[in-house]
Amino acid sequence: MTQHDRLLIIDFGSQVTQLIARRLRELNVYCEIHPYNRVDEAFLAAFAPRAVIFSGGPASVFADGAPMPPKGVFDLGVPILGICYGQQVMMHVLGGRVERGHGTAEFGRAYVTPTDLTHPILAGWFPAEDGPMAREQVWMSHGDHVSEIAPGFQVFGTSANAPFAITADPSRHFYAVQFHPEVHHTPKGARLYENFVKLAGFKGDWTMGAYREEAIAKIRAQVGDAKVICGLSGGVDSSVAAVLIHQAIGDQLTCVFVDHGLLRLGEAAQVVTMFRDQYNIPLIHADESALFLGALEGVSDPEVKRKTIGRLFIEVFQKHAHAVGGATFLAQGTLYPDVIESVSFSGGPSVTIKSHHNVGGLPDKMGLKLVEPLRELFKDEVRALGRELGLPQAFIARHPFPGPGLAIRCPGEITTEKLDILRRADAVYIDQIRKHGLYDDIWQAFAAILPMKTVGVMGDGRTYDYALALRAVTSVDGMTADYYPFTHEFLGETATRIINEVPGVNRVFYDCTSKPPGTIELE
Q1: How far apart are the first and last CA of the chain?
Q2: Catalytic sites, residue numbers
Q3: Which of 104, 113, 482, 503 could form a disulfide with 145 if both were Cys (CB 3.0 to 4.6 A apart)?
Q4: Least confident of 360-364, 407-411, 485-489
């Protein structure tokens, strides 16, 4: 990506740092997130950013070992934008003052009023005709506060508890805000990023078309004339990765489709037909359902499930790599959110939420190198890349499906009986969503079978069957999500269909939890 102007995001541990990258990607600006403790003077010289953004974070500048940027970043002569903790770091390092105190913390919705509308960093933010009554909603999340700005900075906006909500040193092109413009609850936050990248001189030339060509070149350079096996699940991620790699190296690629017995109804046949017949990609259909289900028998802990599936997944690939003959690389459809949720930088405040079976490289014993052409992309960017590659829209728009499959939609012990019930119920649920024209409005929808049975009555008889949970969320990138507001009529109709058409279910619930505090999947 060195031919593009690059923006560096220095991560101080905020759980929403990824959203900064999303806002910039939407502006066709190439950016990378790097933890503060991996950015030194040598890194800055090699990366050569056109601009830098400091993320927020949970730390305090007063704490021992508080996260700090390299001092040389302020001498690069490039625009810098500090967000929340990033603002406090800028003030602390550049000669201002940060304090703690009762009554100055802000968490949640706040309103910023402008003190100066002349600077282009605020272009389009506050309607000029509103004059002194102008204000704009933002999202705050801070305990410490800036009590004195650094020399050279001016105040451009204030809030009730943040007198220096928007500040700038125009001569050095340093900007700092106390709120989070990247989150949904700062409605005009994207405009602030747009103004910043314009001031920094970005051309906005990073597109999925450009990414496709560069990724193909990168794959060819990495792989050479070696053979590659690709872990194909049939989901959007691995499928886009497979088609992209096939365009790069042709029949050097062999896809291995592992049927672990945890797929949706009819999914295995669909995958084989599409890739073997439509795309003519060499494909091994590895039916390993007995192996996986045998290993999962009696297992109820979700992390043990994921790690078991991940271990077996690698073992299966190791076996089929030998069958391919001389494969050197393994390709996976790992995405950026997988990496963010699975990896916490050393000493950083971010926490590992859950493990992902396709993240973290491969064990040495496998003897394969890793190809992950989607590792820096968010889900919507993968869909855009899929369109560039010519995949059918109906396929690209499919809801995400986790690598561990139905295992994490079956809390508690997994049995073939529960999987059969779950497949049929999920098919009815998705059919209902499609019939009501709601599929494309929803990020992800699925059924989960709960580890409980309940008493019911059907006809004149008593039943003691499983309870089912329905989940549907809206999201942009999977990092945050909210439940989809189905009507009661839809939910009632769907519950009735499931109970009538799927033996073994006598009760249906709808999950109204957002992310956070929940995750999208149940496990």
Answers
A1: 36
A2: 84, 180, 182
A3: 104
A4: 360-364
